[in-house]
Design goal:
The complex is a heterodimer of chains A (about 260) and B (about 260). With about 260 residues, chain A is an all-alpha fold. Helix content of chain A is about 75%, strand content about 0%. In chain A, helix 2 (about 20-45) packs antiparallel against helix 4 (about 55-90), helix 4 (about 55-90) runs antiparallel to helix 6 and helix 4 (about 55-90) packs across helix 10. The longest helix of chain A has about 30 residues, at about 55-90. Helix content of chain B is about 35%, strand content about 25%. Chain B contains ten helices and ten strands. In chain B, strand 4 and strand 5 (about 80-85) form a beta hairpin. Classes of the chains: A mainly alpha (about 260), B alpha/beta (about 260). At the A-B interface, helix 1, helix 5 and helix 11 of A face strand 1, helix 3 and helix 4 of B.
Chain lengths: ~260, ~260
């Protein structure tokens, strides 16, 4: 199994470094957007009380951007693996190998997650070294929230990939979650600024709990007991979504094999 | 002789899908096109068996069912003793499939890197030695370090054959391997197919609409037309001991 994981990582690494300029542009983009939010934060002298525990708007938004990046990766990487394989013609060749479909889809996305981790690292590095963010660090709590978040978003991503397998294009799940999470999940502003009726929708989105948990751990130094509500809600999402995503994915593969549309796009 | 591939009453129909509405329709309310209608045939071990037929005859559908890429609707399909619906993983261990599409590789990787990747996914032990052997067989050693994007159509087809041979499977499927190739490249591929059967004892199922190719290579031929098997036998049997040409037989069997 490890050999196969290595094979996927090496394949994706070779393809990534064959586009060197793209990698440099990514780094440049991170630096520019970090700087942009830093100067934006200086525009406002007043810090709302809801942001004071996080050390102001700038640390708040950097964590929001960095970790919503994981959400985007999880939501899109699985479905783009399927879509790319259908369009380039490699999916059929992969399905003929002695590797399970679920393994192919999961391992094809690992590099994207590692690359996102690298991007998040640079967000935090630039934020710390160039713009003075200080982290208070409950690392264990952050890791627990992080792992739960990845599983929840990966489950949503696998459901999205199932949709692509059957319907080929126009995946509504990914669109709904990306748009709703950006608007209502507390990425760029605290959900307390939303009108009451709209804020209720925030509470059904996993990212609301992920970002709150991560910010409390990294910026407010909260202990495990403080983030227990976030851990419990995210665990609930995992229990429901993970098995559901695997079931839907298997059903989608069977459907596509029956309809003969496995490699159509 | 016991068939290494056995097909009994195989039927396959595909739903007509024009949009979301067709996908969401209940199976009983969908419209279908018949792809295979009650196919029966058996392929013997170490035989080069040719499926001949015009475009749309069902050749690719048949091979994809055998390779577990499409599920059959009715009938039984056994490959190397394993039933394709019940034991797809076992079937995959017994077959190699050179796909028609030459797009099924990673363009940014070299031929060698592509083969290494697929060797890992096929759990091949001593993959370096195996890759060296298949590159030699397909005469790609000299260009193995070139990116796949720079390969000619013939080289791409050869790399497809090399990949199908990686795991050294006893059964090989080729779907129109010489399609759109120049005569020299096509001839090299035919030589490789002959060698795989005669010297290495492989069983080959070859789908083609090239009559000359079928006549020169096949131990036996099945002619498909509109999803039905309309003829089966050796070239001598089909041509009544060469009283007719294969072309005459073919034209009399398939619809215009």
């Amino acid at each position: 199994m490890l050999r196969k994981l290595f094979a996927f990582l090496y394949r994706d690494f070779l393809i990534a470094i064959s586009y060197k300029f793209g990698f440099l542009l990514t780094l440049g983009g991170i630096l520019f957007s970090t700087a942009g939010f830093f100067f934006l934060s200086r525009l406002f002298e007043y810090t709302p009380s809801s942001l004071k525990i996080y050390g102001g708007y700038f640390p708040f938004v950097i964590i929001g951007i960095a970790f919503s990046d994981y959400m985007m990766t999880a939501l899109h990487s699985f479905s783009s693996t399927i879509r790319e394989g259908q369009v380039t013609g490699t999916l059929e060749a992969l399905l003929l190998t002695r590797t399970k479909v679920s393994t192919i889809v999961l391992f094809s996305s690992v590099f994207s997650f590692l690359f996102t981790t690298l991007r998040v690292f640079f967000y935090l590095l630039f934020g710390t070294l160039l713009f003075g963010i200080s982290f208070k660090g409950n690392l264990l709590g952050a890791i627990i929230i992080f792992i739960l978040t990845i599983i929840v978003f990966a489950s949503l991503g696998i459901i999205s990939a199932s949709f692509i397998m059957v319907f080929k294009r126009g995946d509504p799940l990914s669109w709904i979650f990306t748009s709703a999470s950006t608007l209502l999940g507390g990425v760029f502003y605290p959900i307390s600024v939303l009108p009451g009726w709209l804020r209720n929708f925030s509470f059904i989105l996993p990212i609301t709990y992920s970002l709150k948990g991560i910010r409390m751990c990294l910026l407010a130094g909260a202990g495990l007991r403080d983030i227990l509500p976030q851990i419990l809600v995210l665990s609930g999402f995992v229990i429901v979504l993970f098995p559901l995503s695997l079931f839907l994915f298997k059903s989608a593969i069977d459907r596509a094999k029956k309809d003969g549309t496995l490699t159509q796009y | 002789m016991e068939g290494i591939i056995k097909i009994r009453g195989l039927r396959k129909r595909f739903p007509v899908i024009k949009g979301y509405r067709d996908i969401l329709l209940h199976p009983t309310r969908r419209r279908y096109v018949e792809a295979l209608e009650g196919i029966d045939m058996e392929v013997n071990p170490q035989e080069l068996f040719c499926i001949l037929g015009p475009n749309g005859a069902g050749k690719t559908t048949l091979i994809k069912i055998l390779a577990t890429l499409i599920l059959p609707d009715e009938g039984e399909v056994w490959v190397g003793g394993a039933e394709v619906r019940r034991e797809p993983e076992k079937v995959k261990r017994l077959v190699g499939f050179a796909l028609t599409t030459e797009r099924s590789f990673y363009y940014r990787l070299t031929g060698l890197q592509n083969l290494r990747f697929f060797a890992y996914l096929n759990d091949i032990k001593e993959s370096s030695l195996r890759i060296k052997n298949v590159l030699e067989l397909t005469e790609l050693t000299q260009v193995a370090d070139r990116r796949f994007a720079t390969y000619s159509a013939g080289m791409r087809q050869m790399l497809g054959i090399a990949r199908a041979l990686l795991a050294d499977p006893p059964i090989l499927f080729f779907d129109e391997p010489t399609k759109s190739l120049d005569p020299i490249s096509a001839s090299r591929i035919r030589e490789i197919l002959k060698r795989l059967v005669r010297r290495e004892g492989k069983t080959i199922l070859l789908a083609t609409h090239n009559l000359e190719e079928a006549e020169n290579l096949a131990d036996r031929i099945a002619i498909l037309d509109r999803g039905k098997r309309v003829a089966l036998g050796t070239v001598s049997q089909l041509t009544h001991n060469h009283r007719f040409s294969l072309e005459q037989v073919y034209k009399s069997k398939v619809s215009a």
